[in-house]
Amino acid sequence: MKNILALGSLFFLISCNTKSQETQKTDDSNWDAYIANYENGAGSTTLNMDLKKVAPKTDLPYILITGVTYSNCKQDGFPEKEEFNKLYKVSDEVEATISKLTKMELAGTFTYQCERLNYYYINDTTQIRSKLTTLYKSKFGNYKYYINIKPDKSWDAYLNFLYPNEEIQESMSNQKVIEQLQDGGDDLTKSRQVDHWLYFSNEKNRDLFEKQIAQNGFKIELKEKIDDPDKPFKLHISRDDKVDPESISKITLELRKKAKELEGDYDGWETYIVK
């Protein structure tokens, strides 16, 4: 079970630092990161979000989970700063080894309790274990290594473990706006007008939603019909709120939930900088 861990600046630090060299290739992949709380503490996941659009890939029916345990570990289970480059080197060597043996796709990386594991989807398992074992022993003998290879035709490891649940996706989306506000020197704990946008498939559901949120102090800024075949009934609402991660995520999750119950889409929020 994973639950979002509202760590603010720590989220930003990890999202920058856990992206290894193999995820920084010049391609069109949408890589993102999040921190969540697991049974024994916080864990960081970096993943290719775009794979959700094509998963499962039938030509990559096996999951290879491999990585190392590091001793240069902080109390929270994450690597010390100087350890990252060493871990990147391990990942790069592992990927180079795998790519010589089979077609592969790196789905993501999970860092947790002093262990960093890469998740690869592969076409063929022949010689993978023996070649990786040789690599780890010959070049990275100071690390304890882990190799797990198993069938995963449905891409369960990616879709149900690496990929963020709705609550975490909400927090990730909010964090991007919050980072922009912080760059401008915003005091996130000060209330200010926060605007939200929603879209509905029919006018009746939009009106029902409007009645529900009016009881919670939201103001109707604009409602109109737009040129959209699926959800043409637009609603723009606002309320004075704080925008720290915990406060804004609670608000947006509730709005998204209410909209979904009425076949609507929540389309995000914006505000101005308050110092």
Task: Please explain how this structure is put together.
With 275 residues, the chain is α+β, with helices and mostly antiparallel strands. The chain is built from seven helices and eleven strands. It has helices at 9-17, 84-101, 128-139, 156-162, 166-183, 203-214, 245-261; strands spanning 3-4, 31-38, 41-48, 62-69, 104-112, 115-122, 144-151, 192-200, 219-225, 233-241, 264-270. A seven-stranded antiparallel sheet has the order 1-2-3-5-6-4-7, sandwiched between helices. Strand 9 and strand 10 (233-241) form a beta hairpin. Helix 2 (84-101) runs antiparallel to helix 3 and helix 5 (166-183) crosses helix 7.
Feature tags:
single chain, alpha+beta, 7-stranded antiparallel β-sheet, 4-stranded antiparallel β-sheet, 7 helices, elongated
Q: How is this fold's topology laid out?
A:
Elements lengths: L2 E2 L4 H9 L13 E8 L2 E8 L13 E8 L14 H18 L2 E9 L2 E8 L5 H12 L4 E8 L4 H7 L3 H18 L8 E9 L2 H12 L4 E7 L7 E9 L3 H17 L2 E7 L5
Helix pairs in contact: 2-3, 5-7
Share in β-strands: 25-35%
Shape designation: elongated
Enumerate the strands of the largest sheet in spatial order, edge to edge or round the barrel.
1-2-3-5-6-4-7
Continuous helix count: 7
Proportion in helices: 25-40%
Biggest sheet record: 7 strands, antiparallel
Unreliable residue stretches: 6-26
Rg, nearest Å: 22 Å
Overall strand count: 11
Between the first and last Cα atoms, what is the distance in angstroms?
37 Å
Order of helices and strands: EHEEEHEEHEHHEHEEHE
Question: How would you classify the helix and strand content by structural class?
Answer: alpha+beta
Arithmetic mean of pLDDT: 90
